[in-house]
Amino acid sequence: MTTPLDFHCESCVVSLEQALEAQHRGAHRLELCARLETEGMTPDISLAVEILDQVSIPLRVMIRATETGYEADDLVLQKMIASIQQFKQIPIEGIVIGLLKNQRVDPKGMMLLIEAAFPLKITLHKAIDLSVDVDADIRWLNRFTQVDTILTSGGAIRAADGVQEILRMKSLFEGQIMAAGKITPDVLPSLHTQLGLQWYHGRAIV
Questions:
Q1: For residues 42 and 72, is the Cβ–Cβ distance under 8 A?
Q2: SS3 (DSSP) at 101
Q3: What is the pTM assigned to this prediction?
Q4: Buried b (16+ CB within 10 A) or exposed e, 81-118
Q5: 171 CB contacts (<8 Å, ≥6 apart)?
Q6: What 3-state DSSP class applies to 189?
Q7: Closest CA to 179 of 204, 160, 151
Q8: Cα-flanking dihedrals φ and ψ of residue 33, to 5°?
Q9: What are the beta bridge partners of residue 149?
Q10: Burial letters for 167-178: b for 16+ Cβ neighbours within 10 Å, e otherwise?
Q11: pLDDT tens, 138-150?
């Protein structure tokens, strides 16, 4: 797939084979995670090293230590911070994280992860779509230029059904809103016409 120059595609991958295929098909960046049936968890660092050795596009890595939900107690936070410190030893572009507490973005936990990740770039994943106060959470996130991307489907299963919310979030966030949710090459052009974003994300986006 050859995409226009006015937007970019991030491909979600779980293997070297998928990473190589995504790059071949025109992806501009990779998100590496494990166990997609849980919505994604921290992958093995050896896989990240293998991918970095064979691709030329940037790589961001999911950091998540719980199989369900996005809340993190002290033990989970320690595991996530340890993973971040490990992945900082290899040349990834950034990490993908998201913590909730009481159905809001967890500021205490997020600050610990943001500090641990510095200077890596950060994507806040679709946990934001479960917040009961997205506006306030985005305003809080605007304090951290390191958090340069928010991944969202606008609270819908398909990005095409969350267009209005994605546009509203775009108007609030000072970084990049990256749309996700069943985005495939056949729907991407019309979706881009509606959203005008710089980034789109998916498992089969290219």
A1: no
A2: strand
A3: 0.96
A4: bebbeebeeeebebbbbbbbeeebbbeebbebbbebbe
A5: none
A6: helix
A7: 151
A8: -145, 180
A9: 123, 176
A10: bbbbebbebebb
A11: 999 999 999 999 9
